[in-house]
Amino acid sequence: MKKSHIKQESEQRSSSGIEGGFLVVLGGGESGVGTALLGKAKGYDVFVSDKGKIKDKYKQVLIQNEIDWEDENHTESKILKADVVMKSPGIPDKVALIKQIRKAGITVVSEIEFASNFTEATLVGITGSNGKTTTATLTHHLLKQELNVGLAGNIGDSFAKQILEDDYPNYVLEISSFQLDDIIDFRPHIAVITNITPDHLDRYDYKFENYIESKFRITENQTEADYLIYDADDEVIVNHLKKCAVKAILLPFSLEKNIENGACLEKENIKITINNNQIIMPTSNLTLEGKHNVKNAMAASTVAHLLKIRKQTIRESLENFQGVEHRLEQVLKINKVQYINDSKATNVNATYYALESMGAPTIWIVGGVDKGNNYQELFSFVNEKVKAIICLGVNNEKLLNTFGNMVDVIVETQCMNEAVKIAYKLAETGDNVLLSPACASFDLFENYEDRGRQFKEAVRNL
């Protein structure tokens, strides 16, 4: 592995009698505290600074490990003395402090970048606008049957903490565009791009091209010895590939095209071919429903095939995978009405997949913080499948204007319990009640997990 800027700096300082140098961690959440622990173990002088309040469980970890920290404040004079700054993915570049740090010539990295310098593990990096959590979790499920593998990144325990405590020989990393924005040398052996649709454009100057380029950073350091797995039905990805120089071996997957090297659908079977080595699996046995999940299965199985997981193991693992919490999660069936938690659908494209997979009349709970959503691609599904809409958000005006004429019943509420009670009254035998918000959750909830758990609790209390 090539020597990174962080390792070089660390070694130079160690040889001059200064341990590791001064690492400032901005953000005292999972990734921040994990980075602080790893940084301290690697000889850095560490300071954690959070503009908000650090949760008690993380404060205790910092105190127990004698790591200097502050919350509800940023001491700029101290921060600007850093040799390396690891910033939480939630902090945008336009924040004045980040501009000052960059102006001072201080290296800014993400946790993924920092941590990857301290492991020789085989890295599988998975990004995309939708499906990355399911694909990452499914890939980990396939690999763990035969390999010692960690699951980290945007999911579970922090990557840095796992390197410190477990140092798995393999990692599956779910990676957001925000994490990719602050990489320098990070290089996954296998990269996966599930799809790219407009999302988080407020962080990218409302330019879709900037967001696309951010996603493609996952492959920028890859070599001819590495692999890029991608959706060949996604025009955005296909068009961007034509104009950017990717060194990695390309392994597309598709529901529509015949793929010679990669994965495709043939007579309702998933066919994966890599260097003439083939595996065929029936889609009828997949536990996950919907076309999008066939694609997620293709991507995950291609990774498993590359890493020499046995064909029988891949088949069995696809058949017993139970899915991801808050992603088309079947909660309960009450009076022959199925309640489905898809709180993780924080954009229109994710909700598109959810509505597409509905096989019964649906009462749809939607709303939250609109990220400049264009709901037009949902119109055909709403007309065909949705019998009532419950708007759950502080400001529901856009939803009311967009869908008011499409359904007989559209109501608004600002309380999850009330939304579920209204759905219960509207639902008839054989219906679905689907929470698939297409929006961020921060107007009424702590995050999408909080929103999903409140939905499940309200359903169980009916």
TrEMBL record:
<comment type="similarity">
    <text>Belongs to the MurCDEF family.</text>
</comment>
<comment type="pathway">
    <text>Cell wall biogenesis; peptidoglycan biosynthesis.</text>
</comment>
<dbReference type="InterPro" id="IPR036615">
    <property type="entry name" value="Mur_ligase_C_dom_sf"/>
</dbReference>
<keyword id="KW-0573">Peptidoglycan synthesis</keyword>
<keyword id="KW-0131">Cell cycle</keyword>
<protein>
    <recommendedName>
        <fullName>UDP-N-acetylmuramoylalanine--D-glutamate ligase</fullName>
        <ecNumber>6.3.2.9</ecNumber>
    </recommendedName>
</protein>
<dbReference type="Pfam" id="PF08245">
    <property type="entry name" value="Mur_ligase_M"/>
</dbReference>
<keyword id="KW-0133">Cell shape</keyword>
<dbReference type="GO" id="GO:0009252">
    <property type="term" value="P:peptidoglycan biosynthetic process"/>
</dbReference>
<dbReference type="InterPro" id="IPR004101">
    <property type="entry name" value="Mur_ligase_C"/>
</dbReference>
<dbReference type="GO" id="GO:0008764">
    <property type="term" value="F:UDP-N-acetylmuramoylalanine-D-glutamate ligase activity"/>
</dbReference>
<keyword id="KW-0961">Cell wall biogenesis/degradation</keyword>
<dbReference type="GO" id="GO:0008360">
    <property type="term" value="P:regulation of cell shape"/>
</dbReference>
<comment type="function">
    <text>Cell wall formation. Catalyzes the addition of glutamate to the nucleotide precursor UDP-N-acetylmuramoyl-L-alanine (UMA).</text>
</comment>
<feature type="domain" description="Mur ligase C-terminal">
    <location>
        <begin position="326"/>
        <end position="439"/>
    </location>
</feature>
<dbReference type="Pfam" id="PF21377">
    <property type="entry name" value="MurD_N"/>
</dbReference>
<feature type="domain" description="Mur ligase central">
    <location>
        <begin position="126"/>
        <end position="304"/>
    </location>
</feature>
<dbReference type="InterPro" id="IPR005762">
    <property type="entry name" value="MurD"/>
</dbReference>
<dbReference type="InterPro" id="IPR013221">
    <property type="entry name" value="Mur_ligase_cen"/>
</dbReference>
<dbReference type="GO" id="GO:0051301">
    <property type="term" value="P:cell division"/>
</dbReference>
<dbReference type="GO" id="GO:0071555">
    <property type="term" value="P:cell wall organization"/>
</dbReference>
<keyword id="KW-0963">Cytoplasm</keyword>
<dbReference type="InterPro" id="IPR036565">
    <property type="entry name" value="Mur-like_cat_sf"/>
</dbReference>
<keyword id="KW-0067">ATP-binding</keyword>
<feature type="binding site">
    <location>
        <begin position="128"/>
        <end position="134"/>
    </location>
    <ligand>
        <name>ATP</name>
    </ligand>
</feature>
<keyword id="KW-0436">Ligase</keyword>
<dbReference type="GO" id="GO:0005737">
    <property type="term" value="C:cytoplasm"/>
</dbReference>
<dbReference type="Pfam" id="PF02875">
    <property type="entry name" value="Mur_ligase_C"/>
</dbReference>
<keyword id="KW-0547">Nucleotide-binding</keyword>
<keyword id="KW-0132">Cell division</keyword>
<dbReference type="GO" id="GO:0005524">
    <property type="term" value="F:ATP binding"/>
</dbReference>
